[in-house]
Amino acid sequence: MATLADLAELVRAPAALSVPGDVIAGAAAAGTLSPRTPALAGASVLLYWAGMAANDWADRRLDAEERPERPIPSGRVTPAAAVGLAAGLTAAGVGLAAAVGGRRAAVLAVPLAATIWGYDLLAKNTAAGPAVMAACRGLDVLLGASGGRLTRALPAAATVAAHTWTVTALSRREVSGADATLPMRTLAGTALVAASAAVAAPRRADPASGGAVPARWARPAAALPALLAGWYAARYGAAQAEVVRDPSAGRVRAAVGAGITGLPALQGALTARGGAGLLGLAVAAAAPLGRRLARKVSPT
């Protein structure tokens, strides 16, 4: 029988620290931060873990050749248990989102879940793979904004989606290694992502948006989005620069890990840009924690 440690490795549990910030950044951008935001973030984590379990189930034969130490090919988790866990987490994530956010949240959670499964089962090994994964993260940001105007959260969703594209493009070369042109392209993308998150545009939500940023969170410093975006760019950018110098599989995996664990800093910048400076700092604090946990359970 699989242990909790085996299941944590299957779903890449530490990588889930990169998930709540999507919802929080979306809620901040739309002006809908509220007590329901943490529950929507929890739903997002459940869907993320579902995607990780479904990913390993879909890749079980390939992993038997390339990553025999993974939970399924090593025999620590059965394929039936993995796909059952993925289905259960999917149902729980969609159900929680609907229970907390009603129809508007469900309208986003259902296509988010479908896109996650579509990536794992159909798109991952195609040219559309990075774009589909980017759509997953973009929808995740919009889930946080589901209580207000989605259009206000579109820039944040596009920024997180663009970052996700870079990470996913790199991840396709985790085993084989890459040529230097790939990390050069993703590094340029990272620079654009950081620049888009660095511009402070704080504002309070108007009543028509369905909520308002609580006063205790609405203390953004004009420089905070830029500082957090710079932190994100420095950590993730340095890892990609190493891949340009040495495009081996090990360096690529390290860059992918940096992209995953560094995402909270970007989400923190977007949250601060949405007018919630202190909350943005709290979101960004997950980045160093994620790096420490990644030493115990690989996020890739």
Describe this structure in words.
With 300 residues, this protein is mainly alpha-helical. It is 70% helix and 0% strand. The chain is built from 13 helices and no strands. It has helices at residues 4-10, 20-30, 37-58, 60-66, 79-123, 129-144, 150-171, 181-198, 224-245, 249-261, 263-273, 277-284, 286-294. Helix 2 (20-30) packs across helix 3 (37-58), helix 5 crosses helix 6 (129-144) and helix 7 packs antiparallel against helix 10. The chain is globular. Mean pLDDT is 90; it is low at 204-211 and 215-220.
Task: Give the fraction of residues assigned to helices.
Answer: over 70%
Radius of gyration equals 18 Å
User: Are there runs of 5+ residues with pLDDT below 50, and where?
Assistant: 204-211, 215-220
How much of the polypeptide forms β-strand, as a percent range? under 5%
The count of strands amounts to 0
Mean pLDDT: 90
In whole angstroms, how far apart are the ends? Answer: 24 Å
User: What is the 3D form?
Assistant: globular
Largest sheet: none
- The number of helices is 13
SSE order, one letter for each helix or strand: HHHHHHHHHHHHH
Secondary structural class: mainly alpha
